[in-house]
TrEMBL record:
Record carries keyword rRNA-binding: no
Source organism: Salix koriyanagi
A family per Pfam: EF-hand_7
Name of the featured protein: CALCIUM-BINDING EF-HAND FAMILY PROTEIN
Positions of the EF-hand domain: 20-55, 69-104
Alphabetically ordered keywords of this record: Calcium
Xref: InterPro entries: EF-hand-dom_pair (IPR011992), EF_Hand_1_Ca_BS (IPR018247), EF_hand_dom (IPR002048)
GO molecular function, one term: calcium ion binding
Amino acid sequence: MGVVIIDGSTVRDFVNDEARFKKSVDETFSKLDLNNDGVLSRSELRKAFETLRLIETHFGVDVATQPEELSNLYDSIFDKFDCDRSGTVDLEEYRSELKMILLAIADGLGSSPIQMALEDDDQGFIKQAADLEASKLSQKPSSAGP
């Protein structure tokens, strides 16, 4: 487990790095597209969001959530991603919605840094944003004198 320090600019810089963001989203989309048909079904997108356990925990403690409540939540998320109401989510819809979600997270974080614990093997968007910032910091020349 590792700890990263991020703020809104960390996430915003990741989203604004179009090549890196696009590559990351495309890779995630491909992993979610289990049948390789180029679109995400309701069940494929639900499986992804189930791993986030959006309302099943409260500060790390499991809480009982009614199956109907979970279904309603995941259906509403799918409907938000399915912009053209085709019954599937294509790559552009997925990328557009993730961009809006991450920018909303960035706005919520603001400029106050927070510490966030992440699994070492985590390759989520927040971890990738933190890694991008760390790589930028390691490339800056040191201003320390002799």
